[in-house]
Design a protein that fits this description.
four-stranded mixed beta sheet; 2 helices; alpha/beta; 17% helix
Length: 122
């Protein structure tokens, strides 16, 4: 089994699409109520669905080995961060931002610790 995608609710589709394109994702489906993107690396996708009142506690994570450089590039494009890249106690380095609809996004690099943390259950 493999994770296919994550769909986030958004309040303003054109604004959300612009935001995710600025992050560097490739749009592969474009309708007034639904958009889908490919990640620039690998085969993962994610989508956006237009909702009247998008309320959600989900967090979407995008991993990139050159996290700090990626964040600097996004800042130069006008993307605002709530937290710049910070080393976490669980061995991931994370930056936090929110999309225009308030969805929480973590850009991170976990390396080997993503699948094989020292506390992994056997």
């Amino acid at each position: 089994m493999n994770l296919n995608q994550v769909t986030l609710p958004v309040a303003d589709m054109p604004q959300a699409v612009s935001f995710y394109k600025t992050l560097g994702f490739n749009q592969i489906v474009d309708t007034p109520h639904y958009a889908r993107f490919e990640c620039p690396e690998g085969e993962s996708t994610f989508s956006l669905a237009l909702e009247q009142s998008p309320e959600n506690g989900a967090v979407i994570y995008f991993e990139h080995q050159a996290l700090d450089a990626w964040v600097e590039q996004l800042i130069a494009k006008g993307i605002e961060f709530k937290q710049l890249p910070t080393d976490q106690s669980y061995l991931w380095r994370e930056a936090i931002l929110f999309d225009p609809s308030g969805n929480k996004i973590k850009l991170y690099w976990a390396g080997e610790s993503r699948l094989n943390p020292p506390w992994r259950v056997n």
